[in-house]
Amino acid sequence: MTTLTIRLPEDKHERLKALAQARKISVNKLMDELATVALANHDAFLRFQALAARGDAKRALKLLDAIDR
């Protein structure tokens, strides 16, 4: 496991703490979940690019619909 230090405006930090408390998880766990979502979105974008490069428009549009959900 790696330790990561980030700088955030105080108001954003307070909002993240409130969100974590509302979900009954730690801020660390919240950040881990948010990072997972960001990586999943990036992976989907890369898959979309690969499909678009192959010219499979129907599959690419289907993938875009899945991203929106």
Tell me what you see in this structure.
This protein has 69 residues and is an all-alpha fold. It has one domain (10-68). 78% of the residues lie in helices and 0% in strands. The chain is built from 3 helices and no strands. The two termini are 31 Å apart.
Contiguous low-pLDDT stretches (5 residues minimum) are none
Tally the structural domains: 1
What's the total number of strands? 0
Kindly estimate the percentage of residues that lie in beta strands according to DSSP: under 5%
Given the C-alpha coordinates, what overall shape results?
Answer: elongated
Pairing-aware structural class of the strands and helices? mainly alpha
Largest sheet: none
Rounded mean pLDDT is 91
Order of helices and strands: HHH
Number of helices: 3
- Helicity range: over 70%
- For the termini, the CA-CA separation is 31 Å
Features of this protein?
69 residues, mainly alpha, 78% helix
Quickly describe the structure:
The chain has one domain.
Helices and strands in order:
Layout: H1 10-23, H2 27-54, H3 57-68
